[in-house]
Inverse folding.
């Protein structure tokens, strides 16, 4: 039987979530705890993430995923591209059950874990797909379906925006989660993307109780 999350890491999760305007009740904390234990257990056999400590997962996976919560419409359909072990889609689903989320990843073992953890946590309204957004059959089945495209460290920004475009509804948004991004890169991107997207905002943040810097880029489909 897995041991529960250490108190210090539980406090980090609860207090860190408050930074993003999220109150985690006891049930949500228990759900994240189970997610953590299953991820650690699977990671002993399958390389799902290079982050292998409780604190690292809470900080760099859970809280990092929750950082985009303030920028999501409450009721929306989301495509999480390159979702890996379920980030950021599954943490967002835990705290906002009304979201309809589709996870897509090209690595079979990661998709297998996604399906396992969705069943284990009892989540509804989450679809998992093994494949690439470049695949013709993926586009044919998912094209034009989503209000929001989410991606965390998937490819470069230009590639992400180009691949996302066909999957978005009119007026939909791309939220790109990156590490530190130079202002020059953002300016160049805005110039080269032309009329297809409008850069609506850039959020620079430091993950709670850490020095890890992140950049959230908010684009709207024109």
């Amino acid at each position: 039987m897995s041991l529960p999350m250490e108190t210090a890491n539980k406090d980090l999760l609860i207090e860190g979530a408050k930074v993003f305007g999220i109150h985690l009740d006891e049930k949500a904390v228990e759900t994240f705890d189970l997610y953590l234990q299953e991820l650690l257990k699977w990671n002993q056999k399958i390389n799902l993430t290079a982050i292998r400590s409780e604190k690292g997962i809470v900080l760099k996976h859970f809280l990092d995923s929750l950082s985009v919560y303030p920028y999501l419409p409450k009721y929306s359909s989301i495509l999480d591209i390159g979702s890996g072990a379920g980030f950021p889609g599954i943490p967002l689903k835990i705290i906002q059950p009304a979201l309809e989320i589709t996870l897509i990843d090209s690595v079979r073992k990661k998709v297998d874990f996604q399906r396992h953890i969705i069943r284990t946590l009892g989540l509804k309204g989450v679809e998992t797909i093994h494949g690439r957004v470049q695949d013709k059959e993926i586009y044919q089945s998912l094209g034009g379906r989503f209000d929001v495209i989410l991606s965390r460290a998937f490819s470069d920004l230009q590639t992400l925006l180009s691949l996302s475009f066909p999957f978005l509804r009119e007026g939909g948004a791309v939220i790109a989660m990156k590490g530190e991004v130079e202002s020059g890169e953002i300016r160049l991107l805005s110039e080269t993307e032309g009329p297809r997207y409008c850069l609506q905002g850039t959020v620079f943040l430091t993950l709670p109780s850490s020095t890890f810097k992140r950049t959230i880029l908010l684009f709207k489909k024109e």
Q: What stands out?
A: The helical segments are 7-19, 26-43, 54-66, 89-95, 108-121, 136-142, 157-164, 183-193. The longest strand covers residues 168-178. The first helix runs from residue 7 to 19.
